[in-house]
Specification:
Layout (H helix, E strand, L loop, with lengths): L5 E6 L1 H10 L5 E3 L14 H30 L4 E4 L11 E4 L11 H12 L4 E4 L22 E3 L17 E4 L6 H12 L5 E6 L9 E6 L2 E6 L4 H9 L3 E4 L3 H10 L2 E4 L6 H12 L34 H4 L8 H11 L5 E4 L1
Parallel strand pairs: 1-2, 1-13, 3-4, 3-13, 4-5, 5-6, 7-8, 7-11, 8-10, 11-12
Antiparallel strand pairs: 9-10
């Protein structure tokens, strides 16, 4: 948008609702949902994913048709797919964004990784939100020893900026992710944190029509609940919080690194990627973690013994990055934007 392009948003479910709230001025379209839900017990995660795979494959096929229709109806010049496997159309340049070049799945990691890389090969380029060299944030998730993929490393991405503000929250709880695990963690934390000494800002991560807040007094402080927050509110709240308790999803990791926060991770049970990131951050002495089942409020005392996350300085050369869209005039249009400041091309962000 800053470079004069006209993005179109296409997504589904909670992600689409959030994107509409963040960018109400942009055209937005609904794509078929993968309808992925997690098992109540982590050990059943892989079985549940295998069971759901026919449903996912059907959704991907529907997604391809929906994307083809959007490209034709709106004359889109290119597609940027944020990990959506079916957001691809062979007649326009397509880019895939992922931090998972390797998809961890236990003893089937080799198979899930090869399958994912085969899908990525269909796209004209793959953008990875991390740095190429060590140290980096993704480890083996976002780095391959050998690859024929056209990979560009963007550096960690975050919607937030670090700001020097007074600390008013002793702890911020930031929940996210699919059900039923999100609700299960919420219920456990509300019980455990009754014994936390200090003020807690608790963001449930439930995207609803209206924002709702509620304050509850505890024996040792208070908990201020929000059902959700938009980006500008989250940025302010995170900057004003001393510590953060959250999942170890990669987007959250990048945000905390940008804000240079101390944190505690509780990975989603059975989600190999989050478990890997949590273990890696603890091993590096950056962020401690606990399993959801074993977490106790006393575990938060471990945070003081860890360094916390720090940001990576990186700059993105958008002219070079958008060369992938040159077949439809993307680069030429991008260059003209600097002189004319008029939108000259369109793209689909999924």
């Amino acid at each position: 948008m800053r470079h004069g392009h006209q993005p179109f948003i296409a997504s589904d479910g909670v992600a689409l609702s959030l994107l509409k709230k963040e960018f109400p001025e942009l055209p937005a379209f609904e794509l078929p949902s993968y309808k992925i839900s997690y098992a109540e017990k982590g050990r059943n995660f892989k079985i549940k994913m295998i069971w759901d795979s026919p449903k996912v494959l059907k959704a991907i096929a529907k997604e391809k048709k929906a994307v083809k229709r959007l490209v034709k109806e709106h004359g889109l010049d290119g597609i940027i797919s944020d990990n959506r496997l079916g957001a691809y159309y062979k007649k326009v340049p397509c880019v895939f964004i992922t931090h998972q070049l390797n998809v961890l799945s236990g003893n089937t990691t080799w198979m899930s990784s090869k399958a994912h890389q085969k899908i990525i090969k269909k796209f004209d380029a793959c953008w990875v939100p991390d740095v190429k060299e060590k140290p980096n944030l993704t480890g083996k998730l976002g780095h391959l020893k050998k690859s024929k993929l056209d990979i560009a490393y963007l550096g960690p991405l975050s919607r937030f900026e670090k700001k020097e503000t007074p600390i008013i929250n002793d702890l911020m709880v930031l929940l996210s992710g699919p059900e039923p695990q999100r609700t299960m963690l919420e219920e456990k934390l509300l019980e455990e944190l009754q014994e936390f000494e200090g003020n807690i800002l608790f963001v449930k991560g439930k995207i609803e029509d209206e924002q709702v807040q509620e304050e509850i007094q505890t024996s040792k402080g208070k908990i201020l609940h929000y059902n959700f927050m938009k980006s500008n509110e989250l940025e302010k709240a995170l900057n004003q919080s001393e510590k953060v308790l959250c999942r170890s999803g990669y987007t959250t990791v990048m945000d905390l690194a940008k804000l240079e926060k101390k944190a505690f991770f509780i990975p989603t049970p059975g989600q190999y990627e989050q478990e890997y990131l949590a273990k890696r951050m603890q091993k590096q002495g950056l962020v401690p973690y606990s399993s959801q089942e074993d977490f106790k409020v006393q575990d938060l005392f471990k945070i003081k013994d860890f360094d916390g996350l720090t940001q990576f300085e990186s700059r993105v050369d958008f002219v070079s990055l958008f060369e992938v869209f040159s077949e439809t005039g993307g680069v030429e249009a991008f260059s003209n934007v600097k002189e004319n400041s008029e939108p000259t091309s369109t793209s689909l962000s999924t």
